[in-house]
TrEMBL record:
<dbReference type="InterPro" id="IPR050595">
    <property type="entry name" value="Bact_response_regulator"/>
</dbReference>
<dbReference type="InterPro" id="IPR001789">
    <property type="entry name" value="Sig_transdc_resp-reg_receiver"/>
</dbReference>
<feature type="modified residue" description="4-aspartylphosphate">
    <location>
        <position position="89"/>
    </location>
</feature>
<keyword id="KW-0902">Two-component regulatory system</keyword>
<feature type="domain" description="Response regulatory">
    <location>
        <begin position="40"/>
        <end position="157"/>
    </location>
</feature>
<dbReference type="InterPro" id="IPR011006">
    <property type="entry name" value="CheY-like_superfamily"/>
</dbReference>
<feature type="region of interest" description="Disordered">
    <location>
        <begin position="1"/>
        <end position="26"/>
    </location>
</feature>
<keyword id="KW-0597">Phosphoprotein</keyword>
<dbReference type="GO" id="GO:0000160">
    <property type="term" value="P:phosphorelay signal transduction system"/>
</dbReference>
<dbReference type="Pfam" id="PF00072">
    <property type="entry name" value="Response_reg"/>
</dbReference>
<protein>
    <submittedName>
        <fullName>Response regulator</fullName>
    </submittedName>
</protein>
<feature type="compositionally biased region" description="Polar residues">
    <location>
        <begin position="1"/>
        <end position="12"/>
    </location>
</feature>
Length: 163
């Protein structure tokens, strides 16, 4: 990385003014770079229909989607797909979402700080609390709602979606 730069959202940005437009030009340049990059999402759910529907929704929002049908599959895919966000179902076999999240958070690699959004049809306080205790970033109730999904993408990937 060049001197006087910092890594931010997978782009390098200079802290110096970019010309006559100064800081405004720098912000515009960074925003254009972010919009041209597809954000990578790893979707983990054992239900094939949910994976298909959620993949379509994420692709409509401009995301590049990798899927896994269980926790083991997800953990083995991390290095290959390098997700910016992980959507993780709680109830799966043989490795459920809680155990998968624990493995992701315990990793020494690039993924221990990756935002993980837990997916579940259980909206009870205990399940949400257990998710937060394990290090999840947010919680989405299934079936997925496009507006809630767009809010998660905006919060964790800093992308605006007009669908």
């Amino acid at each position: 990385m060049a001197p006087n730069t910092r890594k931010c959202s997978n782009t390098e940005t200079s802290r110096r003014p970019t010309g006559p437009t100064g800081l405004t030009g720098e912000i515009t340049t960074m925003s254009q770079e972010q919009n041209s990059q597809k954000r990578r999402v790893l979707l983990v759910d054992d239900d094939k229909i949910i994976r298909l529907k959620a993949t379509k929704m994420l692709e409509q929002c401009g995301c590049e989607v990798s899927t896994a049908e269980n926790g083991w599959d997800a953990v083995t895919q991390l290095d290959d797909c390098k997700p910016d966000l992980i959507l993780l179902d709680i109830t799966m076999e043989p490795l459920d979402g809680f155990k998968t999240l624990t493995l992701i958070r315990a990793s020494k690699g690039d993924f221990k700080d990756t935002p993980v959004v837990m997916l579940s049809s259980h909206d009870d306080v205990f399940t949400m609390g257990k998710s937060k205790d394990r290090g999840c970033s947010a919680y989405l109730e299934k079936p997925l709602d496009m507006e809630a999904l767009k809010a998660v993408l905006k919060e964790f990937l800093s992308i605006q979606v007009a669908v």
